[in-house]
C-alpha cells in the first residue's frame, strides 16, 4: 500500500510540475503575426525567457502564483499578469499592441562636432567577462560616461576573447541611469547583433537609430536566441574601486546587480 501511495504521489507531483511549465505564443495585435524576441519574465525574479523567431516561449511558473509576469518589447505596450490568473486563464496566445513613441527633440547647434571614443577599449585575451551559458534574456553591460551634452552615438564596439563555434544572436540596449543603475531604454527600435561563427570583433553602426545621450548612460548586450554554443566572453579590465564594475541581470524582468570589480570592455565611438 505504501508503495502504491508513493507511486501515486510521484505521478501527481510530475503532473503538477508539468502544469507549471507554460507554453505560449506572442503576436502583434494588429497584424496577428508572431513577435520574435519578446521578453517574458517574472518581475524582480531571475525567472524569464525570450520568444523565439516564431514568437514561441516556454517558462516555468512553479511557485510564483503571487508574482507578476511581464511581457515587453520595444515598440509595443507591455502587458502584466498575476501568475495565478495567467495560468488559470490559459492564455496561450498573447497579443501585444504597438505603441506610438514620440521622438525626443534634440537641439543641435552649428558648432563643429568633436569625435571621441567613450568607455574601455581593452582587447585583452586574458581578462574576460560575459555570458557563461546559453541563458535567454541574460543581459550584461557597463556605464558609459560622456564628455559633454548632447552626445551623439555613432558606433558600438566590443572584442570577443574566444570566437564562437556557432552563430550567436544578441540585442544591443541603451539605458538612462537612475541612482547609478539602468533605468529607461533610450532607443525606440530593437538593435539586433548577429555574431557569425569565428568572429572576434563586434562593430554596430548606430547612426540609423539617431541616439543622443544627455547624461552618462548604460550600454548592454542581451542574449536573445538559443545557440549550440555555451556562452560568449568579451575582453574585460580590473575596475579601480569597482567604479566600472559589470552590471547585469539574469533575465529581462529581473533586478539589476553589480558584479565584482571587473568591467566589461564595451566602447562607443561618439561625437559631442
Task: Describe the structure in your own words.
It is a single chain. The chain is mainly β and 272 residues long. Strand 2 and strand 3 form a beta hairpin. The model is unreliable at 1-18 (pLDDT under 50). The protein has two domains: 9-96, Sandwich (Immunoglobulin-like); 115-271, Sandwich (Jelly Rolls), CATH 2.60.120. The chain is built from two helices and 22 strands. The radius of gyration is 21 Å and the shape is globular. The termini are far apart. It has helices at 2-20, 83-88; strands spanning 21-28, 39-42, 48-50, 56-60, 68-72, 79-82, 93-96, 115-119, 128-131, 139-144, 151-159, 168-178, 181-185, 191-195, 201-205, 212-213, 217-223, 232-238, 246-249, 257-259, 262-264, 267-271. Strands 10, 12, 13, 14, 17, 19 and 20 form a seven-stranded antiparallel β-sheet that branches. Strands 8, 11, 15, 16 and 22 form a five-stranded antiparallel β-sheet that branches.
Amino acid at each position: 500500500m505504501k508503495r502504491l501511495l508513493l507511486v501515486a504521489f510521484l505521478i501527481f507531483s510530475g503532473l503538477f510540475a508539468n502544469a507549471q511549465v507554460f507554453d505560449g505564443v506572442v503576436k502583434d495585435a494588429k497584424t496577428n503575426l508572431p513577435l520574435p524576441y519578446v521578453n517574458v519574465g517574472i518581475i524582480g525574479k531571475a525567472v524569464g525567457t525570450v520568444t523565439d523567431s516564431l514568437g514561441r516561449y516556454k517558462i516555468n511558473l512553479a511557485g510564483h502564483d503571487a508574482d507578476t509576469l511581464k511581457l515587453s518589447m520595444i515598440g509595443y505596450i507591455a502587458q502584466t499578469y498575476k501568475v495565478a490568473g495567467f495560468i488559470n486563464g490559459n492564455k496561450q496566445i498573447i497579443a501585444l499592441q504597438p505603441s506610438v513613441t514620440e521622438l525626443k527633440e534634440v537641439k543641435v547647434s552649428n558648432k563643429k562636432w568633436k569625435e571621441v571614443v567613450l568607455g574601455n577599449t581593452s582587447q585583452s585575451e586574458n581578462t574576460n567577462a560575459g555570458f557563461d551559458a546559453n541563458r535567454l534574456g541574460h543581459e550584461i553591460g557597463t556605464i558609459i560616461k560622456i564628455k559633454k551634452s548632447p552626445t551623439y552615438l555613432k558606433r558600438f564596439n566590443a572584442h570577443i576573447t574566444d570566437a564562437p563555434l556557432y552563430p550567436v544572436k544578441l540585442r544591443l540596449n541603451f539605458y538612462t541611469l537612475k541612482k547609478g543603475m539602468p533605468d529607461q531604454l533610450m532607443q525606440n527600435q530593437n538593435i539586433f547583433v548577429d555574431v557569425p561563427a569565428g568572429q572576434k570583433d563586434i562593430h554596430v553602426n548606430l547612426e540609423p537609430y539617431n541616439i543622443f545621450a544627455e547624461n552618462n548612460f548604460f550600454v548592454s548586450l542581451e542574449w536573445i536566441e538559443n545557440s549550440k554554443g555555451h556562452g560568449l566572453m568579451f575582453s574585460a579590465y580590473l575596475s579601480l574601486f569597482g567604479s566600472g564594475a559589470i552590471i547585469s541581470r539574469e533575465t529581462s524582468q529581473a533586478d539589476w546587480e553589480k558584479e565584482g570589480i571587473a568591467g566589461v570592455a564595451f566602447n562607443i565611438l561618439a561625437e559631442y
